[in-house]
Design a protein that fits this description.
With 202 residues, the protein is α/β, with parallel strands linked by helices. Helix content is 25%, strand content 31%. It has seven helices and 14 strands. The strands form three sheets. A six-stranded mixed β-sheet has the order 1-2-3-4-5-6. Strands 7-8-9-10-13-14 form a six-stranded mixed β-sheet. Helix 1 packs across helix 3. The mean pLDDT is 97.
Length: 202
């Protein structure tokens, strides 16, 4: 069976923050990207499928909140790049994640996801490229209309612009960008806006 992409939206009951959790797989196995807010909601979407990997685009609380609970339920450790350890510990002071490195690959239902380091939003931000599906899972690195926020001391606008230019704009224009919040876009739709982003500074 050919791999498919599923989008699950969950929200924080206190702040109202809505997040996308992405599933890549088929009826038998699946990769989970950014299990947010509700372990039960993500588990219901996974159903009885085997989880081959839990991948985190970065360590912000709203993207990792359900990672530990999901990992315990399916016996798969969440994967995160080490530079975001300090953010992870804000949500999960005692639980640990498995290391994630630039270039690591993960498979489900014949689809391969490749981890690409894209620092800027956070030091450990990572995108996952599924070339055979024509998709990149971008977390908070790229949205319709521009880069993710860089308002914190540990984030950097110049760095996120460089990450987008080197890691994401190397992809085909038709590549669909699946972000951590809101609707998707394409590389082709965002590429022409790069100079405008730099001019406005965000």
């Amino acid at each position: 069976m050919t791999a498919r992409i599923e989008r699950i939206t969950t929200s924080d009951p206190v702040s109202g923050m809505e997040n996308n959790t992405w599933l890549v797989g088929d009826d038998s196995e699946v990769i989970v990207i950014d299990p947010a807010h509700s372990t039960d909601t993500v588990l219901a979407a996974v159903d009885d499928r085997r989880v081959t990997a839990i991948l985190l685009t970065h360590g912000h609380w709203d993207h990792v909140r359900a990672a530990v609970g999901l990992g315990q339920k399916v016996d798969v450790p969440p994967r995160l790049r080490e530079p975001d350890d300090f953010l992870w510990r804000e949500s999960h002071p005692t639980a640990r994640f498995a290391p994630l490195n630039d270039g690591d690959t993960f498979e489900a239902a014949g689809a391969t996801l490749v981890a690409r380091a894209t620092p800027g939003h956070t030091p450990g931000s990572t995108c996952f490229v599924a070339e055979s599906l024509g998709v990149v899972f971008a977390g908070d690195t790229l949205f319709p209309g521009g880069p993710g926020a860089t308002r914190w001391k540990y984030s950097n606008f110049a760095t996120i612009v460089e990450s987008i230019g080197t890691a994401l704009f190397a992809l085909d224009d038709a590549t669909v960008v699946c972000p951590g919040h809101g609707d998707s876009t394409t590389i082709g739709a965002e590429r022409p806006q790069l100079r405008d982003w730099i001019a406005r500074g965000w």
